[in-house]
Design brief:
Largest sheet: 7 strands, parallel
Radius of gyration: 23 Å
Number of helices: 11
Helix content: 25-40%
CATH architecture of the largest domain: 3-Layer(aba) Sandwich
Distance between the termini: 29 Å
């Protein structure tokens, strides 16, 4: 039995005791996935691999921030909490520490990186899951003041993507548009980019929304690329046109969230039709969906846009940014219209139509069928990457 219980003095990595029986060895690296949708991806992945490991099909080692975030039976864990302290720590972890771990584990069949970057490791096969859409975000100068980190992500993520990218047998993305843009940006063969769409939402049996006040909802964290200002400008103009008390726009943010949200409240806090309700947990968000007549989603860039697929299950109207990600995510929805996310007046016009009972702008969208290669489960990911 090989003993990896000692601490690596160079990188301070806690290596757990693992067995030496020969099975197909899969290593999943996800040290930066700690919350939100990315953590859900890690949990979904390890849950699927756990079932395979318990059946004796594979042996799985997971490199994570904390085991408690994604603890599943049959998985061997290596915790690397120090990797998130700074970008220097993160890069050292990716390109030095993980290389050492790969040498110690030895005879790795597949190294699957779930957080965009491709580590320098020794393995028969490598694959990377890319879900960071910042390289495609067209930022403005004011975004530097509102959140310079996101601007830095937009500027530098493409370079981190590029490092070791061609070492991968496959790159995994969520949407076809992402595959097309990724192939252009990094000169990759599309056949090496696998589309793995999130699970389809289950139709929800929501009660009818209150008829007394028409409610629009934009559920998102106030990052600058989310484009809250488009909704605020449209709501302000519509209130001036129709008067107060005709509708309500609910935004899931507060002035205290960050500098960007403070700017939003300072500029549009006087608009009575806008309600800043703050962060909403998942359970409460479903209740909020039940009280909503129409979803608005003006974000400039997304990997998927989860609220779109969640709200589409209600069958109610959605007003979405006229961008590739929104068209693909909303495929199969019943009442959807699109607007230029840089033209609040277009959004205002669509909102006015709905308030007046005019649904002529809404349309049912055909179901989108991505071109191969495409997978629908983590078992298929493993099979494809190792074939």
């Amino acid at each position: 039995m090989t003993d990896y219980s000692k601490t690596d003095k160079l990188s301070n990595v806690q290596l757990y005791e693992v067995n030496s029986s020969r099975q197909s060895l899969i290593v999943v690296s996800a040290v930066n996935l700690r919350k939100g949708g990315t953590l859900a991806i890690l949990q979904d992945c390890l849950q699927a691999l756990s079932a395979m490991a318990l059946q004796g099909e594979v042996r799985v080692v997971a490199l994570v921030h904390r085991r408690s975030l994604c603890d599943y039976p049959g998985i061997e864990y290596i915790e690397l909490p120090w990797s998130v302290r700074s970008w220097v720590h993160r890069l050292w972890c990716e390109y030095v520490t993980m290389h050492g771990i790969s040498l110690r584990l030895g005879d790795i069949d597949l190294w699957l990186s779930l957080h965009d970057t491709t580590p320098c490791v020794k393995a028969r096969h490598q694959a990377v899951y890319c879900h960071n859409s910042y390289p495609f975000f067209r930022w403005h100068w004011r975004h530097l003041w509102q959140n310079y980190r996101i601007v830095c992500f937009a500027l530098f993520t493409r370079w981190f993507y590029r490092i070791n990218l061609h070492r991968n047998d496959f790159v995994i993305v969520q949407q076809s548009w992402f595959r097309d843009e990724f192939a252009k940006m990094f000169c990759l063969d599309k056949n090496r980019i696998v589309v793995f769409p999130p699970k389809a939402s289950t139709p929800l049996d929501f009660p009818t929304a209150p008829a007394s006040l028409f409610t629009f909802l934009y559920p998102a964290y106030p990052d600058v690329h989310k484009n809250f200002e488009c909704v605020c400008e449209a709501a302000e103009a519509l209130e001036q046109e129709l008067g107060r008390g005709r509708f309500e726009v609910v935004l899931t943010t507060t002035p205290e969230a960050n500098r960007y949200s403070h700017w939003l409240h300072r500029k549009w806090g006087h608009v009575s039709s806008i309600r800043f309700c703050g962060f909403v947990p998942k359970e409460q968000l479903l209740t909020l969906y039940a009280q909503t007549d129409c979803l608005i989603f003006p974000s400039h860039v997304e990997t998927w846009g989860l609220p779109i697929s969640e709200f589409a299950a209600t069958g109610r109207p959605m007003l979405l940014a006229d961008l590739p990600y929104a068209h693909e995510t909303a495929a199969g929805s019943q009442q959807t219209a699109f607007f230029n996310p840089d033209q609040p007046r277009q959004l205002q016009h669509l909102m006015r139509q709905l308030l007046q009972g005019d649904t002529s702008s809404l349309q049912a969208l055909p179901v989108h069928a991505p071109q191969p290669p495409i997978v629908h489960s983590w078992r298929e990911v493993v099979k494809t990457a190792m074939s």
